[in-house]
Amino acid sequence: MRIVPLISLVLFILCLSNPVQGQENIGKKLADVRSPEVAANNTVTFNLVAPQAKEVYVLGNWLSADSPGGDKLRMTKNADGLWTAKQATMGRDLYLYNFLVDGVRINDPLNVYQIRDVSNVFNYFITNGAQAELYKTHAVPHGTLTKVWYPSAINHGERRMSIYTPPGYEGSKKSYPVLYLLHGMGGDEEAWPSLGRVTQIMDNLIAAGQIVPMIVVMPNGHTSNSAAPGNSEKGEYPVEFRTPDVGTGEMESNFMEIINFAEKHYRIKKGKKNRAIAGLSMGGSHTMVISATYANTFDYVGLFSAAYRLTDAANIAVYDNFDQNLLQQKKNGTALYWIGMGKTDFLYKTGETYRKKLDEIGMKYSYYESEGGHTWSNWRDYLVKFSGLLFRN
Is residue 73 included in any domain, yes or no? Predict the structure, then answer.
């Protein structure tokens, strides 16, 4: 009996019966089933091949208890074991979703496009038209996104940040203004580039002539982590939403090291009129405090669904001295102090109270109120609106 040809024959048969495809698994081709399918009118169809499943739903960030069908979209199965659900015309945006299969949440195996948000991984899709087109990669000149390590006094080592440089940066000697863009609690230096679609937004707005070309610096605001999960000396650590550094004031107190590094290593125009800072939620609080602490450093300030003071603890200088620093910031003046908030944001009252404080001291600001709540849908929109107002003076 010849063993080698028999083994080869068995392996060949197994390959033919294996539905998995990839560079290293060339086997039986799957039926042409795709998911999701986004129609021209933004109706979206979800598909899942799961013949043995008993109950399947779509879990999406556009669904809530107030949605017509509730917070889950039910899928139905045909005779071939294909589950399908159709979501009627959706808005023009980027959406996240998973499947719930017999009580177990899974990602869509037919959709390779995924985004991590804190400790969860979601599939995503982008619909068509209007604002959604800003979140897509189009045939326009492209900027460059790099991950940069810089020396930090916080952990006596190095920390990582993401930096976007506009199209043509590498081939020129031109200097640019800079936007420091801060993430929310649970985020890191990858949040704005992935969930916020910063490179796509910047490329598309620059190509359309709607914003001044700028450098965007996106640091990691959780000082107890030197980099995003899987990229630091901590290895594959459990990802936390609220890390021990929240409310310590370390990010705010040491922000000049980020500015100094960026201005030393990149062609950034110097001076207050060429610097902007903005952030969402926790990053909004950081922005509020940093811009007041360094009261003559930023001419443009953006608060996106901003939190206020991140701790009630005393003896943290950047918090305890905030009121007097804010007065100095008001005295020095800003070209733009911009506040964006959703009508159903859980921080709505916090924002209302803070605006009252600004009114009481006579500090000028611009206020934009949107529909929706504490969502990336709003924060991407705020970035588009805020960036269009920068460096026009």
Answer: yes
pTM: 0.90
Look at residue 1 and tell me if it is in a domain. no
Q: Which of 128, 161, 176 is the last residue of a domain?
A: 128
**Residue 4 domain-assigned (yes or no):** no
Sheet of strand 275-280: strand arrangement: 144-152, 157-165, 215-219, 178-182, 275-280, 300-304, 336-342, 366-370
User: With contact defined as beta carbons under 8 Å apart, do 310 and 303 qualify?
Assistant: no
CA–CA separation, 351 and 328 (whole Å): 21
How far is Cα 389 from Cα 230, in angstroms, rounded to an integer? 36
Provide mean pLDDT across the span 296-316. 94
Q: How far apart are CA 196 and CA 319, in angstroms?
A: 28
Buried b (16+ CB within 10 A) or exposed e, 204-224: bbbeeeebbbbbbbbbbbbbe
CATH assignment at residue 104: 2.60.40.10
Q: Looking at the structure, do residues 141 and 288 belong to the same domain, yes or no?
A: yes
Buried b / exposed e along 306-336 (16+ C-beta atoms within 10 A): bbbbbeeeeebebbeebeebbeebbeeebbb
Segment 108-125 mean pLDDT? 94
- Whether the pLDDT of residue 13 is over 50: the answer is no
Same domain (yes/no): 78, 158: no
Cα 286–chain centre separation: 16
* Structural domains counted in the chain: 2
pLDDT tens per residue, range 178-235: 999 999 999 999 999 999 999 999 999 999 999 999 999 999 999 888 788 888 888 8
Same domain, 178 and 194: yes
What is the CB neighbour count within 10 angstroms for residue 354? Answer: 22
How far apart are alpha carbons 80 and 48 in whole angstroms? Answer: 11
Q: Which residue has the tokens 């930096």?
A: 163
Indicate whether 22 belongs to any domain: no
- Which domain range does residue 83 map to? 28-128
